[in-house]
Amino acid sequence: MDTMTIKEICNALQLNVLAGSKGLDKRVTGGYVSDLLSDVMGNAREGELWVTLQTHRNVMAIASLKDLAGVILVNGQQPDADMAEQANKEGIAVLGTDQSNFIITGKLFQLLNS
Amino acid sequence: MQLQYDIEGGNFTKAGFASSEIKKVLKQLNVDAATIKRIVVSSYEAEVNIVAHAYKGAVTVVIDHEKIVMQYQDEGPGIPDIEQAMVAGYSTASPEVREMGFGAGMGLPNIHKNADDLLIESEVNKGTLVTITIYLKQEGGQ
Ligand SMILES: Nc1ncnc2c1ncn2[C@@H]1O[C@H](COP(=O)(O)OP(=O)(O)OP(=O)(O)O)[C@@H](O)[C@H]1O
Ligand SMILES: [Mg+2]
Question: How close is the nearest chain A Cα to the Cα of B72, in Å?
């Protein structure tokens, strides 16, 4: 299976780039859905796209430490100013959608496994 | 090689800084990627526990050819029952801390899973010392 870039996923799922646009060429190997930070720390893997409704700066600290491909904020959530700033600094994309975690995760799963 | 970073209790904007510095050093030392991942999980969880549960602290990191030893020392409430604290899902995190997505009670179990050795020493109303040891393998080495 060929991996997709964040940019390709953005286009396919009509996601908005909310921050970290330097990271759009990163390749995505899978996804992880959680709002519990220690769960992501313990179980997410390098290259995964993290679907969450958490909007604070610690999200980017974890995304960077875990070498995640990027973050999708659901339900129309916007990143806090310091989260956006950190995303830009690290070059890790934060994408947004009005859809729920259930809907967007289903679409992402289908896209990555088609 | 020895490194030291201060860790501020209650200040979540800086949480993860020490871990990210440690990660940079390990990459420079060419430690293999899988080992770095285990070290990063362990160091982040111990660091955030000081931020979330203690008043102030520091980590001292000693790296030699064979291993990395990270000592997280804090002044804080201490842990009255260490065995209970190790149970997955056990947490005394405040509502504000939980709202941020911390407080799942998974941090210490994550360290236990990723470290070769974990030692927790604590005195109630004084503080806690968490010592994490992980053996190293050089990238491409034996
Ligand atoms: N440095 C510390 N000082 C005081 N208490 C601590 C310290 N580290 C851990 N504890 C206690 O142990 C409990 C379990 O810690 P653990 O890291 O497993 O979970 P948590 O920090 O509550 O949540 P999570 O790590 O999932 O965000 C904490 O809730 C707290 O009561
Ligand atoms: Mg913890």
Answer: 18
Ion ligand 2: protein residues whose beta carbon lies under 5 Å: B 49, 107
> Cβ of A65 and B19 within 8 Å?
yes
Q: Which residue has the higher pLDDT, B140 or A18?
A: A18
Q: Does the pLDDT of residue B85 top 60, yes or no?
A: yes
CB-based contact (8 Å) between A66 and chain B? yes
Q: What's the average model confidence in pLDDT over A52-67?
A: 98
How many helices (H) and strands (E) are present in chain B, helices listed first? 5, 5
Domain around B114: 2-141
Burial environment of residue A13 by CB neighbours within 10 A (0 to 12, 13 to 18, 19 or more): middle
Interface touch A65/B20, C-beta < 8 Å: yes
The domain that contains B96 carries what CATH number?
3.30.565.10
